């Protein structure tokens, strides 16, 4: 097995009396897309900036591609997309991208990246005059232009329209297919669910849950089947036919909710029970908890 691309062990970061990162552990496997999620103030940005080499670990160890994050030999091997942009405010878009490309031995084709990310129309526009979406796309282009082994993306689709957002997703997936490791922070749960192989949820400076999006949502007890049929079905008899612990309720005439460990076998049992009694459901809907539901369960639903 290849060594992890990023390995954080027992990391502690403090600002005065505030502990931003509290003995945090996480691993990013080589070739994966790993999302680090958390509420504002959870410690994820401090953790990522430490991995990027912008901050020195106060306690614990951080290794990026096997090295200290501040090792200068890492610079050609990683790409960083900062949330604040990272370009000089007065630089023209294409000039900035060509400058970054010139710093690398084997950069991507600049013109191809410009076309891929829809930056052709803003080549002579200073960075500060670009729209928010254009600034985001230029920042992404600057992060990938050097063919990095490891890519850090901080809120990569914030402010993007749906077309640009989808194009960014496709680019991240394509880079993973070519072996690039990506560490992603985002507040869009559907983005993390769509792109990520592994999700780490951070709160109060610690990782409180880790796993694939499917693993994290599978832990929920709120998976349900909703179906409509004839009113007044024998829900007690149906519960006895379904796996132990399953609950069935009629919520309104002919509207039923089945809650439990929903899997293909349960769905087959439900339809067989209906068929055996000559009942044809008018609709059946399987509802599973989303990553956002799980995130809110773990971190709370109140504003901070």
From TrEMBL:
Which superkingdom does the taxonomy of this entry point to?
A: Bacteria
Q: What is its main location?
A: membrane
Where does the ABC transporter domain start and stop, copy by copy? 6-229
Q: Name one GO molecular function term.
A: ATP binding
Which Gene3D superfamilies does the entry mention? P-loop containing nucleotide triphosphate hydrolases
Indicate how the chain sits in the lipid bilayer.
Answer: Peripheral membrane protein
Please give the name of this protein.
ABC transporter ATP-binding protein
Q: Which organism is it from?
A: Aeromicrobium alkaliterrae
